[in-house]
Amino acid sequence: MFEAIARIPAEELARRHAALRKHLEAVAPKAGGILVFSRLNIYYLTGTSGQGVLWLPLLGEPVLMLRKGVSRARLEAGVRHIVPFKSYSELPGLCADAGSPMTPVLAAVMAGLTWQLGTLLAAKLSAHTLVSGDHAMALAKMVKSEFELEIMRRCGDKHHRSLYDILPGRIRPGMTEREVAHHAWAVFFEHGHMGILRMQAHDEECFLGHVSAGDSGNYPSSFNGPLGLRGEHPAVVLMGNAKTVWQPGQPLMLDIGFQIEGYHTDKTQAYFAGPVSAIPDAIRRAHDFCIEVQDWVCDKAKPGVTPAELYAGSLDMAKRRGFAEGFMGLDDNQVPFVGHGIGLTIDEFPAIARGFDLPLEPGMTLAVEPKQGVRGVAMVGVENTFEITATGARCITGDSYEMVGVE
After folding, report:
1. Starting at the edge strand that comes first in sequence, how are the strands of the sheet with 251-260 ordered?
2. Phi and psi dihedrals of 327, rounded to 5?
3. pTM, 2 dp
4. CATH number assigned to the domain covering 10-141
């Protein structure tokens, strides 16, 4: 009676399985397969957002075991073995019945489980040794296929047109941050945003993103990013504050993500309440410096270069140009990175940061976000999403980075 809304092609799923198996052999060489728990990673490997666990053996077919949603999974998933379960103790028997028995050593994507469920899993599978497979999963998702890149390019195009071409005509000085946020949501939904942003980091949340007028951009933040914000409330430190008005002569920063078909792009657009000719020199110089850093990273981000090298070069530019104070945040808001991987979550591997020494590869996607805090005034800067190609980085969220004047 029903048909799947969409399906991931079989060859795409096969590529993902092969990539995860290859990285698993390097990361956890004793493991005979990997257990995957989070809905998002299950979707990545099967095509359905199931509540349960996927067993992907090094040899043999995957087995998808679900607490809920078996009928939907049978419509959407590109795997043959889909069965219900109630207790983790059932997993070995279900896998054996499917012809893909569990091995003595099992890798698990441990970030997909709470401590409580992880402890329960270990108890129920006490005959097996569990090792971490998280890094293998991160490496597999790090390099995108043409199937994934095509979605992200469409996402980036919608993202840029929404923030750069359309939103400036819907907002004006005198609006509150909250009003601006609501207009941004309206434009995003009109252009296909699917209504959810996902974070990979444990207990991190994102709803639309950050809307910061003037010195809100330097307001103390608990979010792991350089742009501060007051947010809705101490319980909802996202979007924009209903009592903070975007005043004439102030910058306005929108650091908000777009998502279609599960894939994200990240972008920060800066606006100025007034004509561009009235932008104060301190704000203009800081913003132009951030564009310069982004251009430098884009120029250097070629296959074989490491994210750590890009980060070190960015810090060196900030020191040489007199922008060390406030680069990537003021005071406690300062963060030790200048960008991050992006895909099915906003914050994928790798970070553009110290210690990330795995060379860039074609097909990787990075959000590059140089920001500069101007004390007592605002946070300014840019963020755009880039695709690493064989010849370098290509921006997929537009090619205009200047601060947009709104009168």
Report:
1. 209-213, 251-260, 263-273, 404-406
2. -70, 125
3. 0.96
4. 3.40.350.10
Q: What is the pLDDT along the chain (407 residues), one digit of tens a residue?
A: 899 999 999 999 999 999 999 999 999 999 999 999 999 999 999 999 999 999 999 999 999 999 999 999 999 999 999 999 999 999 999 999 999 999 999 999 999 899 999 999 999 999 999 999 999 999 999 999 999 999 999 999 999 999 999 999 999 999 999 999 999 999 999 999 999 999 998 888 888 899 999 999 999 999 999 999 999 999 999 999 999 999 999 999 999 999 999 999 999 999 999 999 999 999 999 999 999 999 999 999 999 999 999 999 999 999 999 999 999 999 999 999 999 999 999 999 999 999 999 999 999 999 999 999 999 999 999 999 999 999 999 999 999 999 999 99
Q: Does the domain made of 143-406 have the CATH classification 3.90.230.10? A: yes
Report domain extents, the chain: 10-141, 143-406
How far is 71 from 53, CA to CA, in rounded Å?
16
Structure tokens at 288: 């132009």
